[in-house]
Structures are given as C-alpha cells and as structure tokens.
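3.2 Worked example (two chains)
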Amino acid sequence: MSKEPKWLEYAKRLQAIAQAGLTYSENKYDRERFEEIREISSSIIKDQTELKKEEISELFMEDAGYPTPKIDVRAAVFKDDKILLVKEKVDGRWSLPGGWADVGYSLKENLIKEAQEEAGVKIKPQRIISILDRRKHHKKSFPFGMYKIFVECEFLSGEFEKNIETSDSGFFSVTDLPPLSLGRNTKEQIRSCFEARRKDYHKAIFD
C-alpha cells in the first residue's frame, strides 16, 4: 500500500498522462491541452510543497518520451559482517553508495561506478536483494515514480577518496547505524540487506 498522499498520486498521474500525450500527439490543439494538464499537475505540487513552480516545471521538462519510473540503485557492500555507508554532503547523513542509474551503464556497471565515485572502493555485485516501489516504503513525498534496487556486493579493495558528493565513509554493524539519509535508504531496508547476507539462498524481494 502506498504511503503517499492522494493529492501526490493524482498529480503524478496527471503528469504521466501529459508527458505521454506530448510524446505521441502531433495535433497542436491536443498538445495545448496536454501542456495545460502538465501545468495543473505542477500547480498541485507547488501548493502542497515548498518547491517553487519554476523548479517543478524544470523537473518535469527534463522528462521526455513515455513516462516510466526512475531507477535508484544502492550497493550493499559488506566486509566482516558490516555494511559500507557514505556520508552525504547534501544533508550530512548516511546512505548506501548509489544514486540514479545512468544511461549507457548496466545495473552492475552503475553499482561499480557509484561505489568507486562515492566511497573510493572496488566491489563485485553478487545478487539482487530487493526491488522496491519507493512510495510504499518512504513517508516523504517525491514527484516521480521510482524503483529502488538494492544489490549485495563483495568488497574487493580501496578506501575513501575526496569527492563532490560525500564527505566520509565507514563500515557499520546493524546495531550501530549512524543517522540515515532516509530519502535514500531506511533502517528497514538496510536491515533487510543484512538478513539477505546471512542466507546462502535469498529470494529477491519486490513489490
């Protein structure tokens, strides 16, 4: 069951309809109607959040083509029964290495890239832990649909290097987690990574 408020669900559905219509419609009058629908969606989000209408419109304008969920990938990197977390500069809290999946990279390549960029480490992705619909697991609203993919990874080598996204990294036990960047990962999601780690066979979790 979604944790999102109904107004956000409706706004995102309107945005998806408008984006699909603008992608496939050639008639200028139809396109005007879809542009109006997109404006209505932006106004709904503006009235219910602290985002400025210009910021919302810019976010929506970046999307083109048939609307699909965005993909967020997270590397659950283990060493000595502890998990690797990085400290995000944007909020000073901790998360699994990861972020938006970049076009041109496979899931495995994205995970390797994110771990190297954010934590300075080399890893070997091994198995999928879960593929989650963000709106069912996070209370904080988000203007787009999103799937979050958590993958168990083996630590190979490396250590933290200065970068533009994170300020520190470390390995933590499940009972000693630091303050988490909850928009990126929750305690429950990290605990599920530990649970999967302890099993010889893990059946991937998905919504």
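3.2.1 Second chain
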Amino acid sequence: MNVDFYAAFLIGLMGAGHCLGMCGGVAAAVTLGMPGDQQSRRWPYLFCYNAGRLFSYMIAGAIIGGAFAGMANYSGYTSALVVLRLVAAFMMILLALYIGQWWQGVSRIERLGQGLWRQLAPKAQSLLPLKSPFAALPFGALWGWLPCGLVYSTLSWAAVSGGAFSGAGVMFAFGLGTLPAMIAVGGMAQQLQKWLKNHYVKRASALLLLAYGVHTGYIAIKQIM
C-alpha cells in the first residue's frame, strides 16, 4: 500500500480533537435522536452513519484525483503532478502544525465549502430523528460534505494520487482514521476519547506528519530541479 494512504489514515486518526469538535455532536445525535427503546442498538446506526460519511469522502477523492490526473494527461504536462505534490507536502506541514496546536490557520480553509454546506445542511437536518439504521446512511453522506480543514488538506493528497481510484483510496484511508473518534463519541467510549485528545499523543503524531511532509517536499523539489 502506498505510504500516502498511511499518511491519510494518520491525519484522520490524529485529527481527533478537530473531528470531535466538528462532528462529535452529530455523531452523538445519531444515537440520542433514536427512539428510547433502541438505545441498546446504537451500533448499526453508527456504522451506517460513518459508512455514509466515508462514501462522501471517497466520492470527493475520486472527483479530485480523477480531475487532476485527467488534466495532467490531457495537457501532456505530467510534471504538473510533481508541483501539486509539493503543494500537498506544504499542506501536510501546515496540518502538522495545526494538529500539534502550534498554528491554527488550517481552520480558515473551511470557509471554502460554506456555500455548498448551506444548501446541504437543511436536507441533513430534515432526516432527524433517524427512524432506522438505513436512514443514517444518507444522513452520514450529507454530513460528509461538512466544511472541514482536515478533509480539504487530505484532498490535496488525493489530487496528486494519480487517478480517481487512488484518490478515493486516499480519502477512504482518511475516513478510517476518523472512525475511532466518531465511534468513541457515539458509543460513549470515554477512555478512547481521552487517549485521542492526549497532548503528548497529538504532538508525537504532529511530528510524524511534519517529518513526512518535509520529506515529501524535498523529493518533489528534487524532481522539479
């Protein structure tokens, strides 16, 4: 498996604090909004919600990855992907600074998707309360388009993945990384939430991402030169 997939997974896993802040309330609503006699059957709801969310991530990754690969092939300027990889490396460095809580500028990227989200949010709200686990699928798919700096940063890696399939794979890996945080808040796993928010865990993960971003940027610069 390409190292980019592992990096995308790590971004999702270690962006837990951001995930809990952005989507934690939504994940909790998936279980709190269900009928009282079904509280013990929260897991099918959480599974379907997260499956829908990951599906949207994969669709976005496929669109971005396919579009950029197609443009590079059509123009005959395949080295454009190398330049984009340098941009993606820069985004990962910024993301590492964000996860390590050294710089919070990545959150400004979330403004890019506000227009689309204003159209989708009412549709998502109209699905509550969820009547069945299957109703959580479209609910999760809509919430997958919530403006998120982590998602947009990872999409920069999908853009340089080389195609629609690999772009979807990068975003799938990212989505898998977010699952522990989302399941923790929905399933009331307090110990897991505490670990995901641990200051030292976040700093160590940020340093790993920072090192990978610097290494990737160095390789891209060498290829350009």
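3.3 Remarks
The two ends are 28 Å apart (CA to CA).
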